[in-house]
Model the fold of this input.
Amino acid sequence: MERRRFIGVIAGGLLVAPLAAEAQQAGKVYRIGILGEKASDPSEARLWQAFRLELGRRGWIEGKNIVIESRWAEGNSARIPELAADLVRLKVDVIVTRGSIYVQAAKAATSSIPIVFTTHADPVETGHVASLARPAGNITGLAILMTDLNVKGLEMLISVVPKAKRIAVLGNPDAPSHAPSLKALEEAARPFQLQLQTVVARTGADLESAFSAMARAHAQAVLVLGFGPYIAERQRIAELAIRYRLPTFFTWRDHVEAGGLMSYGPDFIDLVRRGAIYVDKILRGAKPADLPVEQPTKFELVINLKSAKALGLTIPQSLLRQADELIQ
Done:
C-alpha cells in the first residue's frame, strides 16, 4: 500500500508540474524591445504600427501580456550601441530592429537575447547570420538583399542618364551592409566604364556638404544606400538632389514620395509586419537559430515624374512600362 501511494504521489506531482508551469507562462508579461530610428517620423510610425497590429492579431496585447520598450536613435547613429545596451539592461525577452547598423549594436550588446531584424540589407555578408537557411546564434529575421537591389538601381540610373560617366554613391561606412553594397556596385560599374564617387554622410547635418562634394566632382546621378537617418531626412535629400540637378535612386519608396526620382524595393510595411510573426514564434518557444531568414516576395518600381520634369529628364519608355507606380 505504501509503495502504491508513493507512486501515486510521484505521478500526481509529474502531472501537476507541467500544469503549474503552463499556468505560470500563461500569466507572464513579456517585454519586447524596439530599437528604431525616429519616433516622430510618420514613416517610422507606420512601420511599427503594422508591427503592433500583427502582434495583436496573434494575441499579444500591450498592457496585458506584453510590454513594449522603445529606444530611438533620433538621427544620431553613434547612440545606437548605448540604446541597445539599455534594452539589454531592461532584460527584454526579444529585441526587434531594422537594418545592419542597429543589428550590429544589438549583437554587441547580447549573445543570448533573441534579435529579430525586419529590413536587413545583407545579413550574410555582414556576418550577422551564418546563412539564410540556418542563421545560427540568436539573430534572425527578414532580409531585403539590398546589395542586389542597388546593382539593379545602378542599371536604372544608367538607362535614365545614358551618357553618365560618374555616379555618386551616398552612404555611411559605419553601416556594416554598405561595404558589400559598394563592392558589388564597383563590379557592376566596370563594364560600363563608370566612375563611382563614394560620398559619406553620417547624419542629416552632413547632407549639404555631401551633395556639394558630388557637384564639385561633376557627378551626374546619385545612388543613395538605405540608411535610417537618410529616410528620416528624405525631404532634405530630395530638395538637394533637385538643387544640384542629380537624378536619384533609392530602395525605399518614401524617398520618391518626398520628391526623389525613383526607387526599387520591397513593401517595407509588410516586412515589419512579418517581423511580428517571428516575435510571436520566439515568445512561444522557438529559437532564432531554427527560424530561417525570409526575403521579400514582391518588389515595386516607383518613379516621380514631377521630379523628372524638374530635372529636365525624359524617362525611357522601357522603364516607364516596368513601373508599378508613377507619381505625377
